Structure prediction request, 487 residues.
Amino acid sequence: MNRLVKLYHQLGSPPTFYRITGKWLPWLLGGALVLMFWGLYDGLFVAPIDYQQRESFKISYIHVPAAWMSMFIYLAMGIAGFMALVWRMKVAEAILIASAPVGAIFTLLALLTGSLWGKPMWGTWWDWDARMTSELILLFLYIGVMATYNAYDDPRKGARVAALVAVIGLVNLPIIHFSVQWWSTIHQASTVSLFGKQHIPWSMLRGWLIMAVGTKLYYGYSVLKRARLLLLETEKNTAWVQKIIEQECRHA
Amino acid sequence: MIHLMPQKPEKLKTTVMLAALIQRDVLIGLRQKSQIYQPLVFQLLVVTMFPLGLGAGAKTLAAIAPAVIWVLALLASLLTLDHIFKVDHEDGSLETYVLSPVPLPASVLAKAGAHWLLTGLPLTLFSPIIAALMHLPESAFGTMLISLLLGTPTMSLIGSMGSALTISLKHGGLLLTVLVMPLLAPVLIFGASAILESTLGNPASGQLLALTALLVFSLTLVPFAAATAIRINLE
Prediction:
């Protein structure tokens, strides 16, 4: 436990964050690539074909992990926003700003693949059902965070206001979700639950789970890479960034 | 005996100061007038476009009336949100709210209250005209008035939060819309469905209670979020 607390405090300092996460990046990217290829292979070629949905079901091996990630990243972003507001950590601000585009892309991916899946299944590209609408509103919330950050000339002020926007969105998300769920839906109910009986055989579930871990590693890679660049940019006048630039020049 | 301590200045009560703040905003609004009548004129103009676009069939119009009434209320109040804190920020009175002994969240509540008196209340009182133009059945008028009376304060509150988030931006109008719209979606859902249920002859108490819950929720949390936004912007 002590080592974890120490690591947390070390990661709060931009130079140490930059140094430590630099070592993580190749592992995260490698793990993400291996798992995502394995998950896709497992889903596309190994998993049995659904007797009702046929081959269309295989879109779910991208759709479902993307939808999970869209919510997971918003949660991560909200927590980073809370930390940025309360403790004014530069690293938390960078994580927040770096998370938004990644989350928005996963949300967009979930919406697009859902639309591609909906056409053969329901006969329509788009239907205003509860889960699709919530996902669309989630995309608006991501856009709000990104637009707020970009609207301010001072990046630190922009990041702090964006952090507040993310936290407000996180508090409102359950309300929006449940009120949207009010009009009932043709979207199939959740298939996977941690507790209770599973509605899907293991051979089909496996691909989703592998993809879920793979996309999380990818998020870790992408967010750290973006956050590192953001920190270099906002801290460009400090000694540690100058030192990194000198080192890079010497290598080149 | 000589008292060396200077006399303490008379301490103003928080409630007195908040009442003065609301009175000032309402007075300014009443003298400028545009803040009050512009949303109403906007509503009237837009509602005219529906029959022109859809055809004047009473049945078609009545079917979409609940949604139109609520979407119009939403858009009309969005028009005025930009002003809530912007003018105060430009002339520097926002700083005095931050520095004054009155807690900033309370001042935010007063500002949102004044905004509601100047836009939400007129919009509610004006809504029967919009409803009549859209052929909403008269039996649903009561529910419509109650739903707007419960929903418009939430719009003013969440709108004041959006306004506080964008005060120091020159062109924050579109961003304000992007920030506020998703948060107001639940108000729209419950408000429009309350009117819809009562046109069908069903009780709408569930929706009205949900609107009340949203109002209580935003009354308790929004002032603090908006105050935080103002503090960050003034740093």
In short: The radius of gyration of chain B is 20 Å. The mean pLDDT of chain B is 89. Residues 30-234 of chain B form one domain. Chain B touches chain A at residues 161, 165-166, 168-169, 172, 175, 178-179, 181-183, 185-186, 189-190, 193, 210, 214, 217, 221, 225, 228-229, 232-233, 235 (CB under 8 Å).
